[in-house]
């Protein structure tokens, strides 16, 4: 599963720009709970994708 545009943006702002959940909320206009939910789902999607790649390589 690909990341949605919102999940991708949340990850970039959080992981690469170092923004907190509150700061992401301020920048995007999304609620803090929406940011947290997006990040949880995005990281879960990335973990699943990496596990599939790992399983394929073994």
Give the oligomer, counting copies of the same chain as homo and different chains as hetero: single chain
Q: Approximately what portion of the residues adopt beta-strand conformation? A: under 5%
Outline type: elongated
Order of helices and strands: HHH
CATH class: Mainly Alpha
The rounded distance between the terminal residues' Cα atoms is 21 Å
**SS-based class:** mainly alpha
Rg, nearest Å: 13 Å
Mean pLDDT: 93
What is the CATH architecture descriptor?
Answer: Orthogonal Bundle
Number of domains: 1
CATH fold name: Arc Repressor Mutant, subunit A
Tell me about the biggest sheet?
none
Number of helices: 3
Outline the low-pLDDT stretches.
Answer: none
Helix content: over 70%
Got a strand count?
0
Describe the structure in your own words.
- The chain has 58 residues and is mostly helical.
- The chain has a single domain, classed as Arc Repressor Mutant, subunit A (Orthogonal Bundle).
- The protein contains 3 helices and no strands.
- The protein starts with a helix and ends with a helix.
């Amino acid at each position: 599963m690909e990341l949605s545009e919102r999940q991708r943006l949340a990850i970039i702002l959080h992981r690469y720009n170092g923004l907190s959940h509150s700061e992401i909320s301020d920048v995007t206009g999304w609620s803090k709970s929406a940011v947290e939910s997006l990040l949880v789902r995005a990281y879960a999607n990335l973990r699943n994708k990496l596990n599939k790649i790992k399983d394929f390589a073994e």
